[in-house]
């Protein structure tokens, strides 16, 4: 539900404190009681996360063109993102806290709507509607499944793979010789936007961002194949592509929070 090993530890610790203070003689079903407590703690943490982003993502945006190893996400949380699926974590983070809890408990852990309703102190019909809305947001629109669109999705995935593996030649094959990369100031930490021109320069900048590629995944952004960078599922960079057939002619790197919130991001 949280997508963060640190916050999960906090939730379990808070549940233990409540367990320690509770009158267990009044508890008829201890596993159900603990599940309810942990769910409500997670719901509170998700609500707090939406109102104040305590974890700074600055190092993941300003270092995009020249990432360093010293500020990587802790190994345990990176493994958590890998196990759940980074793209799914990204979309989950766009759900409301109530939608997220209802979807995770029902669709991922097969908890009955009636039980979830008790945990969330809502009506079962309302919880069913929350899960349905979450499901619709995660699946997104159907889109146009043309062969051209499939080739572009494959090109985006190949770009990510080449970046992760350091395959310079593969990047050059994907890029138009006159490709242009545009990055906003939030992505680079510079005073103004950055523009790079030419396949050689753009391919080198992609390789410089290889340490960040682990936290990057393919997705549909406004219905088009793109990449999203999201340590712990917290969206911090969107990379969009312009194509001529299946050749990349332009790359737009966006990290401004106001613009990130405007994107419609779904799983393909």
Automatic annotation (TrEMBL):
Domain RNA polymerase sigma-70 region: 1-50
One Pfam match: Sigma70_r2
Top-level taxonomic group: Bacteria
TM ranges: none
Molecular function, one GO term: sigma factor activity
Domain spans labelled RNA polymerase sigma factor 70 region 4 type: 87-138
GO annotation terms (biological process): DNA-templated transcription initiation
UniProt keywords, alphabetically: Sigma factor, Transcription, Transcription regulation
Keyword Cell cycle: no
Family: Belongs to the sigma-70 factor family. ECF subfamily.
Binding partners and assembly: Interacts transiently with the RNA polymerase catalytic core formed by RpoA, RpoB, RpoC and RpoZ (2 alpha, 1 beta, 1 beta' and 1 omega subunit) to form the RNA polymerase holoenzyme that can initiate transcription.
Designated name of the protein: Sigma-70 family RNA polymerase sigma factor
